[in-house]
Design brief:
CATH architecture of one domain: 2-Layer Sandwich
Number of helices: 5
Bound molecules: zinc ion
Strand order of the largest sheet: 1-2-3-4-5
CATH class of one domain: Alpha Beta
Shape: globular
Structural class: alpha/beta
Strand content: 35-45%
Order of helices and strands: EEHEHEHEEEHEH
Number of strands: 8
């Protein structure tokens, strides 16, 4: 039995901006050829719904983002934990992209509630300063803890 979800995307064209919302898993079946042809100008990739990326998928992705001749500006937003893991491990996973926002795992020490919190890079890391923001638990309003090693999980921020 497999619960894998094939990769798909939705393209939204705005004046002067193209937004691509990705869903599913990036693996050896990922084919970005058609998408690549349609991308030009400033482009934002929304990556919240990317659940998994395997090593073949990483290769497809790196080839995709490093060669987008018509794209003038590339931004990654809402990066899922799976994307963050790759950003931390694979030097050229982002291509020329800037990371605008990403999800980070948090856990409540009081009630155990776990949640991935969206973190905005510009507002939380002004001047490249290195500190995970604080959140209150939605269940019991106790303070939540960053549920990974910040030095590791946030290391991709040092490269931008
Ligand atoms: Zn709690």
């Amino acid at each position: 039995m497999s619960d894998s979800v094939a990769l798909s995307w939705q393209l939204r064209e705005r004046p002067g901006l193209t937004i691509v919302e990705f869903t599913g898993e990036i693996d050896e079946n990922a084919d970005f050829g058609e998408l690549k042809k349609r991308l030009r100008g400033p482009v934002v990739f929304q990556l919240a719904e990317i659940r998994r990326i395997n090593s073949c998928g990483v290769r497809e992705w790196v080839n995709f983002v490093r060669d987008m001749p018509q794209v003038t500006e590339l931004t990654f937003s809402h990066c899922s934990p799976a994307i963050v893991t790759q950003l931390n491990m694979i030097f050229n996973f982002r291509g020329s992209a800037k990371v605008r926002s990403f999800y980070a795992p948090y856990v409540c020490e009081s009630c155990g509630h776990e949640e991935d919190k969206l973190i905005d890079v510009q507002s939380q890391f002004p001047g490249g300063k290195f500190k995970a923001p604080e959140f209150a638990c939605e269940q019991c309003s106790a303070a939540m803890e960053f549920d990974d090693l910040p030095e590791r999980y946030l290391s991709f921020l040092n490269e931008s």
